[in-house]
Amino acid sequence: MFPHPRLVRRARRLLVLLLGTTAVACTDTKRQALADTAGSISRVPASRSIAPADTDDFGVPLPTDARFAARVVSLNPAATEALFAIGADTLLVGRSRWDQYPQEVVRIPALGDGIRPAVEAILAAKPTLVILYATAENRSAADALNRAGVRTLTLRVDRIAQFHAQLRALSVAVGAEPRARVVSDSVQRTLDRVRAVTAGVTRPTVIWPVWTTPPMVIGGGSYMDELLEIAGARNVFHDAAQPSPTVSLEEILARAPQFVVTSAKQAGELGNDNTWQALPAVRDRRFVTHDPAVTGRPSVVLGMAAVQLARALHPALADSLP
Amino acid sequence: MTSDTRALLDGPSLGFDGITVQYAGRPTPALDRVTLHAQPGMITAVVGPNGSGKSSLVRSLLRRAPVTSGRVLLAGADIAVLDARSLAQHVAIVPQREEPGMPLSVREFVMLGRHPRRGAFGAPSNGDWQSVADALARTGMSEAIDRATDTLSGGEWQRVRIARALAQDTRVLVLDEPTTFLDIAHEMAVFELIDGLAREGRTVLLVSHQLNLVARFAEHIVLLSRGRVAAAGSVETVMRGEVLESVYEWPLVVTRDPAVGVPALLPLRGRGRAR
Amino acid sequence: MSHSTGERHHEPMSLRHAGHWPWVFGAVMLVGVSLLGIAFGAVSLPVSEVLDALRGVGDGADVAIVRDLRLPRVLLAAAVGAGLAMSGGALQGTMRNPLAEPYLLGVSGGAAVGAVVAMALGVVSPTLLTACAFVGAAAATILVMALARIVGGSGDTRLLLMAGVVVGAFANAAILVALADAPPERLRGALWWMMGSAADASWGAVSRSAGALVVFGGLLVWRARDLDVLALGGEPAAALGVDVDRASRRIFLIASWLAAATVASAGLVGFVGLVVPNLVRALGARQHRPMLLLSALYGAALLVLADLLARTVRAPAELPLGAVTALVGVPFFLSRLRRLTA
User: Fold this and answer.
1) Is residue C146 less than 8 Å (CB to CB) from chain A?
2) Subunit contact C286:B85, Cβ cutoff 8 A
């Protein structure tokens, strides 16, 4: 039985109205023009060129000089650490409470969360530039800040190339380009060294779990996958486009990784988890241990992270590594 | 009142012409080609056992029953051309059941009877207030005007509903079982009220199962049985033992009450019982 | 006819006459909480600075906080609260049930599906997200009404309620499926959206919500007399000259779309649409026109207050608006329950 013809007519009228509404909404072209890299869409990661982009991750043009650098609030842990690394920490007047590196951050006032931040608290610190973490949830905060006349810089680092790009963008924004180049080069040199040392070895297959239920692992979209490659391993989920895709245990079993990259604490949890026991690598305790404090953030410690992983994966090469 | 004046004030006739009502999923129609007419100036009563289609008749007038054929006529014209509002300006209907919803004052409740004549905006006019007051006076509920509808007894609720219909100021009045919940005194009072309204020239259609009272007040009676007209006519024609017994399927006796001079129905005990 | 006393005895005072004081009180309350909402927030500012900031004078940051953050937020909360209360009042009248609320006819599920699916497809613009949520809610309402009609007759309230439950359950399932393999960010974003917040208060959002309030709410107020009659029930309403099917369908759609507009702007905020009309009726506003207008007034005040609490109680963190209204609504609900059974 089909709905009453009157209802069908009404539905048609409604469709026209709705299309009209969406058309109106779409005239908000400023925000339409962006590609949001907030990790929600699967995409094959083309090797990111290190060519500079003109806008940040929300489509706002990047500052071309340091005119906004008087008072900086950074609600982005990687950015905060980077600012300290390039000596721009004197400009910081606020951070998020999740920004914990380096240790000196404690002297910077914490203004709340980095995701869905309290815009009032940020404005009260009278910033000239606010650095935000690029996720869809921060859009309204970015809008609110822009409306209030505060310049925003919204970035995130998923891959190593983005680390370099973020460092460059920050350095331009705070007027510390030379120092940033030094840091950038130093990190890259370490990475290149490790890559060279591990060039010829047999690569063990690994997975790097980040959550047990549901099983989430590091995929090809993450810098951690790049680190694994540099450190001489092969991530069985390298073909997954997202940084941390949800997979099934069956899929993990099918790909039969030889090792599991975990922290010491996580190794204990995995060991106790009944379902993960099915994985031979877990059952036999074939763990490659890393320190999340070093590997967990895409920052100036990337080089160190690569070294640490390489040592854990290839103990025989320890002497050749930096 | 002279017969000329009466003719001027007379309401339109109300007629059902071959009305068939068929509810979905039921094997037989609730009403099967029922034809009956109610003339102004008298009470036309529709009687019959439960399930004979009496309420479907009223619903077809309300246009809330699936009418598959036939027409309802007002002064000879098909009401299909009238929208609900226009119909309500000519015909006032008191449905059988109405549960009190969210409480209103009696005043507000009866004022709703003026809805078909009022615009979307604006306070009630003096004429509106007068109609409400008259309606309450006629039903004897004037003193309850400020009470809440959820504080009324069953009988009071019934009378207030009739008052609302009266406030519509129509020449045609249709009432479906208006004396449920009323005691003898109030029931008689309502019948006398309806009788008075009819004598003033209105067309009154009364659905009731109170055969004895109907016999005393109605001039034209239509007896329904299983969706069909089993008998129609004056009291003498319809109130006959064999007719009624076959329709109600219960042993009964029709006597003639000397006090009132019209036939009266007396149901007997079931077969094989005394008294 | 003899004078008859009621057989059931209730409170000696039968019905309150509204008079003017609920309006005055409501207006005062709305203005009062609005001023509080502008004066208070995550950051404490002295009153003199707030007043200066309103006029555009003083420290740039303070002006931004007051005029760009707090003011539109207060206005959005007021528009949403008014819309929800009016929607609930209209539905309670048409369904003859004081427990009806604006999300009954699939609005909440539909809006959430619209928003979550949009997020899953990568929609990021708040404006577009709003539009998708509205489309989802509007479509769900039509679906509920079509379902009820197909199953059997349009007027039956029970069928509508059941269709609403069915569509709501289906919507919940769809949302869970859409979120099953979502990255943690999207999960969090969807959850926050569903919990209700007046944080996305751009002036565009304010004008859209105010527009919906004026258009849909205005339609309801215009049709308020029909609502009075519809509230009597199907047959009495038909007897009084109302095309019951058409009129109630219209009211369902308008009331639901008004609610949909509020959900699109502010997520799911419960209890306002349920509680405020009951409160207003208890204050003596029984006819639908004054009841709807008064509900708008009190609904606005209530939500502005709830939003103020949401952003100050645990500053700088924000509580979800839906949680605050629930916390306020539940005790109220319990007190009404006691009166019902008393």
Assistant:
1) yes
2) no
Record: contact A1-C150, CB cut-off 8 A: yes
- Tell whether the model's pLDDT for residue A39 goes beyond 50: no
Round to whole Å and give the CA distance between A159 and B229: 88
Residues of B in contact with C239 (CB under 8 A): 62, 88, 92-95, 165
Distance separating alpha carbons of residues A88 and A179, to the nearest angstrom = 10
Q: H-helix or E-strand containing B46?
A: strand B43-47
**What CA–CA distance (Å, rounded) separates B143 from B146?**
8
* Best to test chain C binding among A119, A150, A216 (most C CBs inside 10 Å): A119
Chains that touch C (3 or more CB pairs under 8 A): A, B
Residue A45 and residue A37: Cα distance in Å, rounded? 11
pLDDT tens digits, one per residue of C263-292: 999 999 989 999 999 999 988 899 999 999
Domains of chain C: 19-341 (1.10.3470.10)
Q: What is the mean pLDDT of residues C87-91?
A: 96
pLDDT tens profile C117-170: 898 888 877 788 889 999 999 999 999 989 988 887 656 778 888 899 999 999
Are residues C235 and B92, on separate chains, in Cβ contact within 8 Å?
no
B265 contacts chain C (CB < 8 A) = no
Q: Which of the pair, C211 or C54, is modelled with greater confidence? A: C211
| Contact present, C and A (at least 3 Cβ pairs less than 8 Å) | yes
Give the C-alpha separation, A249 to A260, whole Å: 13
- Interface check B148 vs C, CB under 8 A: yes
**B155: burial class by Cβ within 10 Å (0-12, 13-18, 19+)?**
buried
The predicted pLDDT at position B142 comes to 94
Whether residue C43 lies within 8 A of chain A, CB to CB, comes out as yes
- Which is it for the CA torsion B139, B140, B142, B147, positive or negative? negative
CA-CA distance, B242 to B252, in Å (whole number)?
A: 9
CA separation, residue C288 to residues B15, C222, C247, C281, C285 (Å): 36, 10, 15, 9, 8
pLDDT band at A8 (very low <50, low <70, confident <90, very high): low
Residue from C236, C305, C334, C281 nearest C88 by CA: C281
Whole-model pTM: value is 0.83
- In angstroms, the CA C107 to CA C97 distance is 18
The pLDDT assigned to C298 comes to: 96
Residues of C with CB under 8 A from a CB of B: 1-4, 6-10, 14-15, 92-93, 96, 98, 152, 155, 222-223, 225, 228-229, 231-236, 238-244, 281, 286-287
Model ipTM value: 0.89
Query: Residues 83..122 of C with a Cβ closer than 8 Å to A: which?
Result: 119-120, 122
Domains of chain B, each with CATH number or no CATH: 3-267 (3.40.50.300)
Joined together, the tokens standing for residue A204 give 């063990």
The per-residue pLDDT for range A162-197, each reduced to its tens digit, is: 999 999 999 999 999 999 999 999 999 999 999 999
Q: What number of C-beta contacts closer than 8 Å exist between B and C?
A: 111
The residue of chain B with its CA nearest to that of C13 is: B147
Quick: pLDDT tens for C8-48.
Answer: 333 333 456 668 899 999 999 999 999 999 998 888 888 88
Residues of chain A above pLDDT 70, percent? 84
Q: What are phi and psi of A243, to 5 degrees?
A: -65, -45
Q: Which residues of chain A does C141 touch, with a Cβ-Cβ cutoff of 8 Å?
A: none
Hey, are the CB atoms on C8 and B151 less than 8 Å from each other?
A: yes
Q: What are the structure tokens assigned to C16, written together?
A: 């309150």
If you average pLDDT over residues B147-169, what whole number do you get?
A: 92
Say if CB C197 and CB C320 are below 8 A apart.
Answer: yes
